[in-house]
Design brief:
heterodimer, A: alpha/beta, five-stranded mixed β-sheet, 5 strands, globular, B: 401 residues, alpha/beta, FAD/NAD(P)-binding domain, Glutaredoxin, seven-stranded mixed β-sheet, five-stranded parallel β-sheet
């Protein structure tokens, strides 16, 4: 999965054609760390159709808030640079993410 | 491998994992079913853990990881699954998960806990994960340098507020009580009062959360004056009590009006062999240590239950011969005399099986056969009661043989 930061977020997500999935996470978010291996499995499965990326909100908080991400874990899907789906909350399951992906490939 | 166990624990919080530790250490084949991705229950979403005896320096998630490791050391199995149904057919209990998997066990411990109560105010559901949070440790990083509002004034609200002050710029606690009055323990209240980052708004509730796609303002109402004010903030944390997870038990297990499971001091529910422990149980004190205590009690009771039931099934109900059961107790001389008399009568030589039940130790069987006085003798043929003699004479005993 592509590592995002201030320097490449605009190019890789907002100015990118097609579907981009961004996994917002942080070291203190246990749920994010538990979920990430599952997202990586999805990345292998759907990597040809969708760009998978992750953003550590440590040091990128303003960027996250700019994307209206105020809860972890957050999985946000962009289509041609537009935010089209925001999955969040402690009940977020990998199946929910898969469903959201399936709806867009 | 079949899905059959001695003991199934539903819920992997401190109460459930304590049952599992005690159960599997007593050689019960034990399974813990947890609906969440991670075990640990409520404490795994908190940070501070200052009052678990014997562990002065730890965090709540770390302590919960240790519980799990401890259970695994004694070979407890863990599986993920949300239980949607419990069926009780005597010694066989069937547990079904949302995905349709069926598990069977001789005994079940209900440790499903409670989840954060939602207020149901405007904006709460829409802005969940977009500034509305029920978990400080999950979201603390995001709110670094920002302003947040905390609703509630119990132990959780105060502890989590203190934790959040390590991250946030300003934190405002909305307290429904008069100035200086909080539900939290004194030691926590004092810490909160001394903390420069925490402000208090007394006599007030949050009425609405406003924002376009993310939290921007909390509408706070003073319940005494009716006056409203809007607080600019990026996050609103709710710690306003919890509700028990017992919907799937309705009709099977006796619940209180508020949905908590009714138990006695031995953690027994209305169904023999089914126990309830921890926050889901109807009780007053809800701490990690009390949850752990509940868990231990239930596992010891479950072990006794399984032994008694197994013995009864194998030696009485499934016996090819007729069975004479003598109910006795060491505290009752008459019943002890009867036991020695029966033993000298050579009952087993007459193709009878002779079983003794200590009514003090084995209340389960004694209650099932309505034994009110001892000595009592019950005769069973093919598992059915054919005679019941209360305080019988030798003659009466001989007459039923």
């Amino acid at each position: 999965m592509l590592e995002l930061g201030k320097e490449n977020f605009e190019d890789e997500v907002l100015n990118s054609d097609g579907v981009v999935l961004v996994d917002f996470w942080s070291d203190n978010c246990d749920l994010c760390l538990d979920l990430m291996p599952d997202v990586e499995v999805l990345a292998e499965e759907y990597g040809d159709d969708i760009k998978f990326a992750k953003l550590n909100i440590k040091g990128n908080r303003r960027l996250a808030i700019g994307q209206k991400v105020l809860g972890l874990p957050s999985i946000v899907l962009y289509e041609d640079g537009e935010k089209v789906e925001h999955l969040s909350g402690d009940e977020l399951e990998v199946e929910d993410i898969r469903e959201a992906i399936e709806a867009r490939v | 491998m079949s899905n059959t166990y001695d003991l199934i624990v539903i819920g992997g919080g401190p109460a459930g994992m304590s049952s599992a530790i005690y159960g599997s250490r007593s050689r019960l084949n034990t399974l813990v079913l947890e609906s969440k991705r991670k075990t640990g229950g409520q404490p795994s979403t908190y940070h501070d853990m200052e009052n678990y005896p014997g562990v002065p320096e730890t965090t709540a998630p770390e302590l919960m990881d240790n519980f799990r490791e401890h259970a695994e050391k004694f070979n407890t199995e863990f599986e993920r699954g949300e239980v949607v149904d419990l069926e009780v057919n005597g010694l066989e209990k069937i547990v079904k998960t949302k995905k349709g998997t069926e598990y069977k066990a001789k005994s079940v411990v209900l440790a499903t806990g409670a989840e954060p109560r939602k207020l149901g105010i405007e904006g709460e559901e829409e802005l969940k994960g977009k500034g509305v949070s029920y978990c400080a440790t999950c979201d603390a990083d995001i709110f670094e340098g920002l302003d947040v509002v905390v609703v509630g004034n119990g132990n959780s609200a105060v502890e989590e507020s203190i934790y959040l002050t390590k991250f946030v710029e300003n934190l405002t606690m909305i307290v429904i009580h008069d100035e200086g009055v909080m539900d939290a323990e004194k030691i926590l209240q004092e810490k909160a009062m001394e903390n420069d980052t925490i402000d208090f708004v007394w006599n007030s509730v949050v009425e609405e959360i406003k924002g376009e796609g993310m939290v921007e303002k909390a509408v706070v109402k003073n319940i005494k004056t009716g006056e409203k004010q809007e607080l600019d903030c990026h996050g609103v944390f709710f710690f306003v009590g919890r509700v028990p997870n017992t919907d799937f038990l309705k009709g099977t297990i006796e619940l209180t009006e508020n949905g908590y499971i009714k138990t006695n001091d031995e953690m027994e529910t209305n169904q023999p062999g089914v126990y309830a422990v921890g926050d889901v149980r109807n009780k007053v004190v809800r701490q990690v240590i009390t949850a752990a205590g509940d868990g231990a009690t239930a596992a010891v009771m479950a072990q006794g239950y399984i032994e008694e039931e197994d013995y009864w099934q194998n030696n009485v109900l499934k016996s090819d011969n007729s069975v004479l059961v003598a109910f006795w107790s060491v505290t009752d001389q008459e019943s002890m005399d009867m036991i020695s008399e029966l033993e000298s009568m050579g009952i087993e030589d007459n193709d009878y099986r002779f079983v003794k039940i200590d009514t003090y130790k084995n209340r389960l069987i004694s209650n099932r056969y309505d034994i009110e006085e001892i000595p009592t003798i019950v005769k069973l043929v093919d598992g059915e009661v054919t005679e019941k003699l209360v305080e019988p004479s030798t003659k009466e005993i001989e007459s039923i043989l």
